[in-house]
Amino acid sequence: MTKNTVILYSSTDGQTLKICQEIKVQLELKGLDTDLFSIDDTTINLKQYSLIIIGASIRYGVHHKKIIQFINSSKTLLDTVKTVFFSVNLVARKPEKNTPSTNPYVIKFFKNIDWKPTLVEVFAGKLDYKKYPFFDRVMIQFIMWITKGPTNTDTEIEYTDWKKVQSFSEKIVAIA
Ligand SMILES: Cc1cc2nc3c(=O)[nH]c(=O)nc-3n(C[C@H](O)[C@H](O)[C@H](O)COP(=O)(O)O)c2cc1C
Among 85, 132, 160, 166, which one has the highest count of C-beta atoms within 10 angstroms of its own C-beta? Predict the structure, then answer.
């Protein structure tokens, strides 16, 4: 196997990480040896990779600032290799907001950053009220209420479309 692919993620409650782990499995099935690191890991030497995949979730309308800092500070490197970006959020549970050109967070993200990855995707995440501390729970309930989603705090729904993750992995293999 060639060790040329790395996935970097930012995940608070684990759903983006779960998607990254599935992509890693899919890529390795196709012979792409893939490393997986948190964006917080500062020990990674990115120069060894020819394909860099970045996955990040949305919290209160934005991707983690470390993702943005990483992209801005690694721009030169990112422009010399194949790159992939995907966003995970709950608005993407809506069919009319689940593509890079229709998801408001992805649209805004690329308006504000000087980077054009080879591939971009967006996945619906997970709603799990039990996991959220009081303030976040109330805020998510409010977000769900305005976007006509479930507001019952017993709700635990994984909206992620795993078939979409699989076909995205195939697209990644195609550009690798
Ligand atoms: C505190 C908090 C704020 C969130 N804010 C948003 C938001 O503004 N828009 C949205 O679509 N989803 C929002 N979400 C939903 C997350 O993007 C979704 O749960 C995702 O699966 C989280 O991924 P992670 O577990 O990798 O962090 C929020 C979730 C939490 C817990």
Answer: 85
Atom of ligand 1 nearest to the CA of 89: 17
For residues 61 and 109, the answer to whether their CB atoms sit within 8 Å is no
CB 47 within 8 A of CB 77: yes
Atom of ligand 1 nearest to the CA of 12: 27
Phi/psi at 25 (5° precision): -60, -45
Expressed in angstroms and rounded, the spacing between residue 13 Cα and the centre of ligand 1 is 8
In short, whether 59's Cβ falls inside 6 Å of ligand 1 is yes
CA distances from 85 to 35, 51, 92, 140, 155 (A): 16, 11, 15, 25, 29
Ligand 1: does its nearest atom lie under 6 Å from the Cβ of 89? yes
| pLDDT value, residue 27 | 97
The CA-based dihedral angle spanning residues 39, 43, 48, 49, taken in that order and rounded to the nearest 10 degrees:
-10
Residues in the chain: 176
Output the CA 7–ligand 1 centroid distance in Å.
20
